[in-house]
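pasting for the record
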Amino acid sequence: MSQTWSTWPTPCHDLYAGSRFSGTQSNGMRSYIVTVSLKYVDMGVPELCGHFTICGLTSDLPKLTTFFDAQIVGMGPHSFITNQWDASIDTDRTHWNFFAAFRPYRNRFDGSEFTYRLKMSDRYVFMRWKERFVVPNYKLSRINGASYEGFYYVCYDREEGSITGYYYHKDSDHYQCLKLTHTRQTSFSHFELA
């Protein structure tokens, strides 16, 4: 019987509901404190979503939290090619190439014969994170000094417990880099009874 992501033992990775990552987002001139809290993860579906909190980005909202969901590359219909959010093949190539783990695929990811499938044994999990709305005010559509109209190209390193990401939006500062590490917890944030 082959093991699927949804039966992958939790101690093997840090992508689970209640997991937290912390670190920074920087654009070369400024750096901001970031915390990511995963709210729901089911790699068998695949689904992953959570809250993204950034501090000090705007004076209007010193602590800005958004809800995001993820496209997990190599699972379901998701490939390295974005095909949305104003991202072209060249945009994809530029941003995925920031990750050393992507290099084996860089010359073939956009070929018609290339299919990438994520395996449980893979060290790296490639994703796109798309912020959807502000928490708790989901009706707030514009924020002075901030944008969540773009998305993040993300690489999660299972061995290191780290996440690296690069934000893309056609009108934003280019190469905003996200660096996060898993925050070890000493207690359970929630539990489920079956």
